[in-house]
Amino acid sequence: MGEMGGIPLGVIGALFLSVASSVSIVICNKALMSNLGFPFATTLTSWHLVVTFCTLHVAHRFNLFESKSVDMKTVILFGLVNGISIGFLNLSLGFNSIGFYQMTKLAIIPFTVLLETLFLNKHFSQKIKFALFLLLVGVGIASVTDMQLNCLGTILSLLAILTTCVGQILTNTIQKRLNVSSTQLLYQSAPFQAAVLFISGPLVDQFLTKKNVFAYKYNPLVVTFIMLSCVIAVAVNFSTFMVLGKTSPVTYQVLGHLKTCLVLLLGYTLLRDPFSIRNVVGILVAMGGMVLYSYFCTQESKKKQSDDLVKEKEDVRTPLIVGVQEKENGEGKKLAKDSVV
């Protein structure tokens, strides 16, 4: 696979697809919910997953990828955790202020670092931690406004953080340990994620909006935007699994905050949303953190590759040295024996 600046082109493609599709679906869903009055976010997500599974099923029938069976218990657990995390995130948004919800999303990175350090023995250098801190401060300055706390909202936010972190770590771990591709894992797990949200979505949405998704008066424009949202969601779900499989949960969260900054910038420039110096400073600080994170990750990756190459050379040389020494010892013993004779 080709590389650009030490980063494989496959990773660059996955990152680009993730950013482009995520920003597109945010714009589409904002128009659907804010302008057209369709507030059923959880139910819409279940439709996204149904369309994603149907698309992958058609691709599989045309032999565009090979299906690989995964342990059913693992797939069911994985699908349930990811489906539940989406429900908790939506409930967190419903029971908390926008500012506290943004803080919930920011907390996912340090929680992920903590979980990977404790349970997967992963090491994060001080440089990486500093870059992540700078990123979180910048996004916080740019996006967090009001901070209103309540007991139920706080509990839901903690559950959302926990399930989201575990789901994203599982996405990365399952692909690497079971040697399955992002497409294969998404194909296996999408039905279970969709089932969780298909059942709970209408109930969650009715609880949050006091409206029934089945009683909503659909019109051609709303249906068109729903279909467009579902099509874009296929790319979002596919790229999400690719990024988590090819990089790490922390990198995926960093990418998510890049999307947040891009959405804010598009809102300021295209939609004429109100902004202040604070928003601009926050975005610049966040971008600086992202650049540093990318730079430090690339440097550490190069160092690891260099160390692995040196180790491989040493492993190759060791048997040769041992063989030469054994040969010399054998010849020495033979000469000694001849001299005695």
Question: What does this entry look like structurally?
Answer:
Helix 1 (9-35) packs antiparallel against helix 8, helix 1 crosses helix 9 and helix 4 crosses helix 6 (151-177). The chain has helices at 9-35, 41-61, 72-95, 98-119, 126-143, 151-177, 182-209, 220-246, 249-269, 277-340; strands at 3-4, 7-8. It is mainly α. Mean pLDDT is 84; it is low at 333-341. The termini are far apart. The chain contains ten helices and two strands; from the N terminus they run E-E-H-H-H-H-H-H-H-H-H-H. The chain has a two-stranded antiparallel sheet with strand order 1-2. It comes from Linum trigynum. It is a multi-pass membrane protein.
How would you sum up this structure in a few lines?
This protein has helices at residues 9-35, 41-61, 72-95, 98-119, 126-143, 151-177, 182-209, 220-246, 249-269, 277-340; strands spanning 3-4, 7-8. The chain is mostly helical and 341 residues long. A two-stranded antiparallel ribbon has the order 1-2.
